[in-house]
Specification:
The chain has a five-stranded parallel beta sheet, sandwiched between helices. It is 47% helix and 14% strand. With 171 residues, it is an alpha/beta fold. It has a single domain, classed as NAD(P)-binding Rossmann-like Domain (Rossmann fold). Helix 3 runs parallel beside helix 4 and helix 4 runs parallel beside helix 5. Bound molecules: nicotinamide-adenine-dinucleotide (NAD). Nicotinamide-adenine-dinucleotide (NAD) binds next to helix 1.
Length: 171
């Protein structure tokens, strides 16, 4: 896929791996919607990108990906702003064994929802122009992790879901 002028939505883009994805996509000529819960760090990351790249090429969209309506809004805002959507990176994740339901909600359910939303906007048969969806798992999704059973379960889920849907979701 040629990346110049493609539009990407990256969740958990304020810092860490999501920010690194954003940097790499911008370097290849993409426009990127940075979607993140953390407004302060998200805005600071956009400001930092604006010093390196044209400010028009990024937007920051504050959003808790575990909130169905807010995630839908984030997709809608991205398409409204940039006029298209070509790449989704479902990256936002947490590792919280105590509030384990939240870990499943963010790491697995929101990744599934983000995938379905990506297909809704990008799939040819839905009026889109095709695209790519990247779901971030972990080695913990392939191997057991003794002290992180829920994190590991959520990432096993991401891998199982992504492998299962990939063959039937050709954009
Ligand atoms: N760091 C690692 O060693 C590692 C290894 C394997 C997989 N991963 C996976 O990579 C992804 C990114 O990890 P990271 O290390 O960059 O994490 P990080 O904690 O540095 O960054 C995560 C980002 O996601 C955002 N976020 C958290 N909950 C959110 C929510 N509900 N809605 C929107 N945004 C939310 C945070 O604000 C933060 O900006 C995660 O899915 C993680 O499980 C990380």
């Amino acid at each position: 896929m040629h990346l110049k002028d493609k539009v990407a939505l990256v969740t958990g883009a304020a810092q860490g791996i999501g920010k690194a994805f954003t940097q790499a996509l911008l370097e290849k000529g993409c426009k990127v919607a940075l979607v993140d819960l953390n407004e302060e760090v998200g805005k600071a990351s956009k400001d930092a990108f604006d010093k390196q790249f044209d400010a028009q090429r990024t937007i920051f969209v504050p959003c808790d990906v575990s909130d169905e309506e807010k995630l839908k809004d984030a997709f809608q805002k991205t398409v409204q702003h940039f006029g298209q959507l070509d790449i989704v990176v479902n990256n936002a994740g947490v590792n919280n064994e105590k509030n384990w339901e939240i870990t499943v909600q963010i790491n697995l359910i929101s990744v599934i929802r983000g995938t379905y939303l990506g297909l809704e906007y990008m799939k040819n048969e839905n009026g889109g122009s095709g695209g790519a969806i990247v779901n971030i798992a972990s080695l913990a999704g392939l191997l057991p992790v003794a002290y992180q059973p829920v994190y590991s379960a959520s990432k096993h889920g991401v891998i199982g879901f992504t492998r299962s849907i990939a063959p039937i979701s050709n954009c």
